[in-house]
Design a protein that fits this description.
418 residues; alpha+beta; Beta-Lactamase; Heat Shock Protein 90; 2 domains; six-stranded antiparallel sheet; six-stranded mixed sheet; 9 helices; 22% strand; rod-shaped
């Protein structure tokens, strides 16, 4: 080969390596990259056969992953063990280029039958390094004519092997990333399924608790009808009132998917409707009206303050009016001067009430404890009626969140007790 021919060959080989590098970077399918590498290597060395062999650690052998020139069935076939009993095994074990001028005459090698079927005479094998401690495999070029491969051929194939090593590393990273993404999708799907199951169980729990509270309330009401003792009636009514208040909390929860925050204003509105139906004193006609802002509160605070509303409204029904009835007003508003506070007011136009310090009359000790539990303050004013003012902290509202629900309840029918 003339000097000019050698230079032309080197330039073609360098161009082939550069072109293959660009090709490999733009492909995500490793098999396509390996096949193109085998094709370019065979073309660059002007031979008909080439293949890329992958090392399998568990089997300790070399499997043909891609190739050109071979009959069907060769690609995907194990070419040899990963030891010095074959040209590719020797390159893999030693890490050095392996050149065999005549595989038919070299009795040290054990080769599969397809070598003789294709008339393979000369081979050259280059190690393909990997990202881990163990190499990926071997790049081999085969000729059906006797060839004297030189150092330029080794350099050419080494360039391809280095590009393949990077392509393999990239493919492994992409595969790991895709596996991670797929696993994350599975976890998200599992999470959604668990949330759905949790939602169903929560709703079932809400229904059961609410139904059981209503059952208890019904039993108390029946017992109240059969009780003639005034003190007994009063005690049963207090218990029934609190059970009804808790049942109302669960009634509100049924529409909130068991969240930890609900609208206290909407809850007070529903609670007042319920109280108007069951708390009227004998012979009286009392009007209850309710005007509430929309205020989202934690469920524990809603429960505590709901019992406070029930106790104070019921106290007005039971003790504020002598004859002829009157009116009770419940309001819930944000403090105009402090958006982090709300004011709950329960008032009546009855005969007034003179509180006793530390007294527990009519459940007022419970009211004070619940207000303190809600980090609130309680003020009582009794002058031509009674006004209970409770101030407590609330979250700062978002823009456009504040609203008012006025409720003017009709006069309920008188509740008759034995």
């Amino acid at each position: 080969m003339t000097e000019a021919a050698k230079v032309a060959k080197l330039l073609r080989q360098q161009a082939a390596i550069a072109g293959f590098g660009s090709f490999a970077l733009g492909r995500s399918d490793l098999h396509t990259v390996l096949t193109e590498a085998a094709r370019e290597c065979a073309k660059g060395l002007n031979v008909a056969f080439s293949k890329v062999c992958r090392y399998r650690a568990e089997e300790d052998d070399l499997l043909i992953e891609a190739g050109v020139g071979w009959r069907d069935g060769v690609v995907g076939h194990v070419v040899s063990r990963a030891d010095i009993s074959s040209p590719q095994g020797r390159a893999f074990v030693t890490g050095k280029p392996s050149i065999c001028r005549d595989v038919q005459q070299d009795n040290d090698f054990e080769l599969p039958e397809f070598y003789s079927e294709h008339g393979i005479v000369s081979t050259i094998d280059i190690l393909i390094k990997g990202s881990s401690d163990r190499p990926y495999g071997v790049l081999e070029v085969d000729s059906d004519e006797q060839r004297d491969f030189d150092e330029h051929d080794i350099d050419f194939l080494t360039g391809f092997a280095n590009v393949l090593a990077e392509a393999v590393d990239t493919s492994e990273r992409v595969l790991l990333l895709q596996t991670t993404i797929d696993r994350m999708k599975e976890l998200v799907e599992q999470k959604d399924e668990l949330l759905d199951q949790r939602r169903v169980l929560a709703q079932e729990l809400q229904h059961r608790v609410r139904n059981n509270l209503q059952l208890v309330y019904g039993m108390l009401s029946k017992q109240l009808d059969e009780t003639t003792d005034y003190a007994g009636q009063r005690g049963l009514k207090a218990i029934a009132r609190r059970v009804s208040t808790l049942a109302q909390v669960y009634e509100q929860l049924l529409g909130t998917e068991m969240t930890s925050v609900i609208d206290f204003g909407g809850y007070v509105q529903a609670l007042c409707k319920n109280l108007a139906e069951v708390q009227t004193a004998v012979g009286d006609r009392v009007r209850l009206d309710c005007k509430c802002d929309v205020i989202e509160l934690d469920l524990d605070i809603v429960t505590a303050l709901g019992i406070v509303v029930a106790e104070l409204v019921s106290n007005s029904y039971d003790h504020a009016f002598s004859e002829g009835g009157g009116s009770i007003h419940v309001s819930l508003t944000r403090d105009a001067g402090d958006q982090t506070s709300a004011i709950l007011t329960i008032s009546d136009n009855g005969r007034g009430f003179e509180p006793q310090t530390g007294g527990k009359r009519h459940g007022l000790g419970l009211v004070r404890r619940l207000v303190e539990q809600s980090r609130g303050t309680l003020n009582i004013k009794s002058d031509h009626g009674t006004v209970w003012t409770i101030r407590f902290p609330v979250p700062v509202p978002l823009a456009g969140e504040i609203g008012v629900r006025p409720v003017d309840l009709p006069t309920p029918q008188t509740l008759t007790t034995a």
